[in-house]
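<amino_acid_chain>
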Amino acid sequence: MTTGQQPRPSIRPAAPEDLGDFQALARRTIDACYRGFLGDEAVDRFISSGASDAHVESHLGQGGVYSLLLDGSPVSPSSTAPRST
């Protein structure tokens, strides 16, 4: 990307190799958003328990998860609920 150009977003189905990026994003989000009302000890305990990582892995394994990419690099997961036909 040259100076002044905006990143190019794209969406694709999430792949197994996205797991680590998605888990890290979930941990950063929990760290930033929940400390204010749960407190440091509860947030640290939850993050270190592995429950968040397991939750992300479970959703990725179920399918219906997509990855938002900016210039080819994953920046966010998104999931869709299964649709009835």
Q: What stands out?
A: Residues 81-85 have pLDDT under 50 and may be disordered. The beta strands are 9-13, 65-70, 73-79. Helices lie at 19-38, 40-49, 51-62.
